[in-house]
Write a structure and sequence with these properties.
Layout (H helix, E strand, L loop, with lengths): L2 H8 L8 E6 L7 H14 L3 E5 L12 E4 L39 H12 L1 E8 L1 H12 L4 E5 L15 H22 L2 E6 L6 H9 L4 E3 L7 H13 L5 E6 L11 E2 L7 E2 L2 H12 L4 E5 L11 H19 L5 E6 L2 E6 H6 L9 H8 L16
Parallel strand pairs: 1-2, 1-4, 4-5, 6-8, 6-11, 7-8
Antiparallel strand pairs: 2-3, 9-10, 12-13
Length: about 375
């Protein structure tokens, strides 16, 4: 269906009030629906209509996929996981990666998107996504299209914001898994290795490991060795602890420097598998059963925590405000206790990684948690 025809069909539901578009792109996570609801309700009270484009950026071009979002349509979705608009991290907007690391848009794509903006008379488009999706949004902005961003990723790796929504929910999933692994590990005297997501940052492993009582946390930001992990396990044995919980981020490099995953030409490396590698190596080094659990997409599923519900709602409302004030090219961000905004360009320029000397790591070390870089306890406050 052409842009003009799709716009005319939707016009039966829309009136002459100004219009805002919204799409959710990239991997799903808890809180997406809460953002959609926050945008829709805020826009309604400000006299705006909302057009939701389905399946990420793909919904913007032929065949156009969209729907009219109203307070009635979004009623009850605050607590639901996933996204009623659908999402994708594949297709015509993310197929190629350029030398600068961001997706290259095929020739003519931006012209098609511009036609959609004009056909729907959009005052602005809200792009809800992570670094890849916001890099595409930045290209829209550079082409003169009115866009604003909302930071979405369980990895919590976007610059300019203290938290991305979805992260808190993923940490809860990790902590809950460790709670469950604690009892079975203690019952059988085992070492349990839990692999969590996070790509090239260790935020989920760090916060989830602290919240779930992990004994060893392996993250990309801290180099580690098997000898130091074994030393920690031996230390716990001497203390009368017959089990150990090891949390490993999927992007943590092995002692050899290798990152476990599957390479894909012109695409991001698909990380995963380090948990099993660590498990097999530890089995060869200790006289104890070792088991591996991979959380995988469980971290993306389910409803958002109350923290993520509030944060997502704030993000949605502030994104509408940015469009009303015509502050395009900006991304909503959380600078506790306030929700502010920063340029999308600054947000996607560098990954926000864990500071090995930061307070969270120091807290973990103070409680005796091992990061695999030392054989024993080191006072982090010296």
């Amino acid at each position: 269906m052409s842009n003009d025809l799709k716009a005319s069909v939707l016009a039966a539901e829309l009136d002459e009030r100004p219009r805002i578009g919204i799409l959710t792109s990239g991997g799903d996570c808890p809180g997406l629906n809460a953002v959609i609801r926050g945008v829709t309700k805020s826009a309604y009270w400000l006299g705006y209509q909302v057009v939701g484009f389905r399946n990420g950026f793909e919904g913007l071009i032929d065949p156009i996929q969209c729907q009219h979002l109203t307070p009635e349509v979004t009623s009850g979705i605050l607590v639901q996981g996933g996204t009623i608009l659908g999402s994708t991290n594949k297709g015509r907007f993310g197929a190629r990666v350029g030398k600068d690391g961001r997706a290259e848009l095929a020739d003519g794509i931006l012209d098609q998107v511009r036609e959609t903006f004009e056909a729907f008379r959009l005052e602005g488009l809200i792009v809800v996504g992570g670094d890849g999706s916001l890099s595409t949004a930045l290209q829209f902005h550079e082409a003169g299209l009115p866009v604003v961003g909302v930071p979405k990723t369980i990895d919590n790796d976007l610059s300019c914001t203290a938290y991305t929504f979805g992260f808190n929910s993923a940490v809860l999933c990790c902590a809950d898994a460790l709670d469950r692994l604690h009892t079975t590990a203690a019952s059988h005297g085992r070492v349990m290795v839990l692999e969590v997501m996070g790509r090239h940052t260790g935020w989920i492993a760090l916060h989830g490991g602290i919240a779930g009582g992990g004994d060893v946390i392996l993250i990309p930001e801290v180099a580690w060795t098997y000898e130091n992990i074994v030393a920690k396990i031996d230390e716990r044995t001497r203390m009368g602890k017959n089990f150990t919980l090891v949390v490993v981020a999927e992007g943590a490099a092995l002692p050899s420097g290798t990152v476990v995953g599957q390479d894909s030409e012109n695409m991001q490396t698909k990380l995963g598998g380090i948990g099993q590698v660590v498990t097999e190596e530890l089995e060869n080094r200790i006289d104890q059963d070792v088991r591996c659990v991979v959380l995988g997409h469980l971290q993306r599923g389910g409803g958002p925590t109350t923290f993520d519900r509030v944060l997502s709602s704030q993000y949605g409302a502030h994104a509408v405000r940015l469009i009303v004030e015509k502050k395009f090219g900006q991304m909503v961000c959380y600078d506790p206790p306030d929700v502010l905004d920063a340029s999308i360009e600054a947000a996607v320029g560098d990954l926000r990684t864990v500071d090995p000397l930061g307070s969270a790591v120091k807290t973990a070390r103070a409680m005796g948690i091992c990061f695999g870089d030392t054989p024993g306890y080191v006072n982090p406050f010296n």
